[in-house]
Write a structure and sequence with these properties.
The protein is an alpha/beta fold. The chain contains 14 helices and 13 strands. The chain starts with a helix and ends in a 7-residue tail after the last helix.
Length: 418
């Protein structure tokens, strides 16, 4: 075996319990190894149509437009915001963690008039706080993160979306961390555009950002539509109908929706293997059932929390707005958080995450998402964390974490498929 073979072998020996990426579904990886089809091959375009239909079911929407953006989750955020925002548009963004700041960053680069408010990390705003500020600001767009993996919190959205619709404000939601893991009801919550990611609860490798948007968003996009000259026909506008041209060609939703429509505008070369993976991942998810999948995530979250508490560790977030697919643990005083993570990875092949900004080194984040959300993974991450803490001389309750998780599983038995 040569050196390169050894590196690949080492990389396969991981139990990934971060808030993304997570372990990919084996059936997804097998699907991604299928032979390449041309992007306009009828067999492939049929797969595209099936993928759109399954994305509508995932987002719980009747929107015509539901398709992936080629790129990681951030590409979906950029595509939606770039296609909606014109210079000077007022955008309101509530920040309760790292990814609210990311939304601000993207909008500022688009010369939006950004208004934001921020609460302490580890907490969330009430919907009334958001609505009151929204009324004062009167934005064109409200952009909000649904689940903040940086803090392990999740914002309620239902009343915010309803108020946005009543006031003719566009409501854009970053559902990257929640889609496929917890309920995201695009239509019922009056969400105008939602952005997901493949590498978290969908258990597909990073590289695509599923999005959906309604006709309110499409109207804004279409009035800014300009098809590039090399592929335009006499029926395409040479300049936008009104407003400014969408600043990005790659992230231009007016052209991307033409690619995903029967027109099949030759805008870009599709990431064929990623579509294979997305198609298979969505098929697996919908076969399991949305409610069943959401319940599975809550089920294993409870076992994980039981083990952490039994070890004598404190949860950083335990209020009603805890994100079910991310569990944050306060690092005990005097413990080097990164040393513990490195020990777990080196000796057990188990990866958990730190956090960002004011929380770096102060919390560990354990993701229980998608295919990583399994009993054996929960038990293994508890064992690795306990062993690492004991080896480093931390005072904890020895031998109780796994027993507490096992007691939960024994008392709440479910079919082995979970």
């Amino acid at each position: 075996m040569n050196k390169e073979d050894c590196i690949v072998s080492d990389l396969t020996k991981r139990t990934i319990m971060t808030p993304g990426p997570v372990e990919a579904e084996p059936r997804v990886l097998r699907a991604m190894s299928a032979p390449i089809l041309g992007q306009f091959d009828p067999a492939f375009t049929e797969m595209m149509n099936e993928t759109m239909a399954m994305l509508r079911d995932l987002f719980q929407t009747k929107n015509q437009w539901a398709f992936p953006i080629d790129g990681t989750s951030r590409s979906g955020l950029e595509a939606v915001l770039t296609s909606l925002i014109e210079p000077g548009d007022r955008v309101f963004i509530p920040i309760y963690g790292r990814f609210g700041h990311l939304l601000v960053e993207i909008c500022e680069r688009l010369d939006a008039d950004v208004h934001s408010i921020e609460c302490e990390w580890g907490t969330v705003f009430s919907e009334d706080e958001i609505i009151d500020e929204m009324n004062a600001v009167n934005p064109k767009i409200v952009a909000c993160v649904h689940g903040e993996t940086s803090t392990g919190c999740m914002m309620p959205l239902q009343n915010i979306g309803k108020t946005c619709r009543e006031k003719d404000i566009l409501f854009v939601v970053d559902a990257v961390a929640t889609i496929g893991g917890v309920d995201v009801k695009v239509d019922d919550w009056y969400i105008d555009a939602a952005i997901g990611g493949t590498q978290k609860c969908l258990s597909i490798p990073a590289g695509m950002a599923p999005i959906t948007y309604n006709d309110r968003v499409e109207a804004v996009i279409n009035r800014r539509k300009k098809v590039e000259r090399g592929i335009a026909t006499e029926h395409d506008p040479s300049e936008p109908f009104s407003g400014s041209v969408i600043r990005s060609n790659y992230f231009d939703l007016s052209q991307l929706q033409d690619y995903w429509s029967p027109r099949r505008l030759n805008h870009h070369t599709e990431a064929t293997s990623m579509i294979y993976g997305l198609h298979e991942g969505l098929r697996i998810l919908l076969k399991e059932g949305l409610d069943e999948r959401f319940n599975r995530h809550k089920y294993h979250e409870k076992a994980l929390k039981a083990g952490i508490k039994a070890m004598g560790l404190d949860l950083y977030v335990e209020h009603e707005h805890k994100l079910p697919v991310v569990t944050c643990i306060s690092v005990p005083p005097g413990v080097n958080a990164d040393e513990i993570r490195a020990f777990m990875l080196t000796h057990f092949g188990v990866e958990i995450a730190s956090s960002f900004g004011p929380l770096h080194g102060k919390i560990w984040r354990i993701g229980s998402m998608g295919y990583s959300c399994r009993k054996e993974n929960v038990l293994f991450v508890l064992a690795a964390l306990e062993a690492a803490l004991l080896f480093k001389g931390t005072t904890i309750e020895t031998g109780k974490a796994i027993q507490a998780a096992l007691a939960y599983y024994e008392s709440n038995a479910v079919p082995l498929t979970i």
